[in-house]
Amino acid sequence: MSARFIISAAKPEQFPPEDQAEVAFLGRSNVGKSSLINALVGADGLAYTSSRPGCTQSINFFQLDEGFRFVDLPGYGFAKVPKHITREWKELIESYLLGRGKLRLAILVLDARRGWMERDCELREWLEAHGRPYLAVATKADKLKTQQERHASHQALREGHAGEVLECSATTGRGVREIWQAISKIKNH
Ligand SMILES: Nc1nc2c(ncn2[C@@H]2O[C@H](COP(=O)(O)OP(=O)(O)OP(=O)(O)O)[C@@H](O)[C@H]2O)c(=O)[nH]1
Ligand SMILES: [Mg+2]
Q1: Domains in the chain, start-ordered, CATH in brackets?
Q2: Is the CB of 188 under 6 A from ligand 1?
């Protein structure tokens, strides 16, 4: 699977033409969206990752070799970012999610250790209200070291939502195959 960076769009006018199916990655700051993209395409440095939250500040588009794209969205809910910037991100993200006809699947990335947080639930409700298909995944599963931690994680993931949440890890590659299965169902339509 080869992938190539196309553009980092800070405003909607910079979005590439809507001529291909897109899979977008959404979730809180620092949850591991960009790392997950890299794990899925098997290219470590493709999407920029950082331990500093708020690292991805614009919408990054990646061209995949089978005629569809991955879209890395900025994370939401990072308190240290000034309010006016948060507002701009929100507008940018909403304009993408509302207007993008070729968005086929939103991958809603959660932290396996924390489960559904308020902002995640809000986003899920928003996606449901707008009829956007999504897949919820819980990443950083490698950080659940003990049986007790794993149990607490399953509990937290179940509590927030009745639907299935796929466990994964960018570090170990767990869940990557299952996420690809979900993507391959939509990418050719
Ligand atoms: N152990 C572990 N660490 C991870 C995993 N995924 C991401 N990380 C780490 O978590 C931090 C944040 O990862 P990013 O991929 O940059 O997170 P992001 O969601 O893109 O963050 P923003 O762009 O700020 O919204 C980095 O230090 C990563 O190395 C994972 O599956 N396991
Ligand atoms: Mg990022």
Answers
A1: 3-186 (3.40.50.300)
A2: no
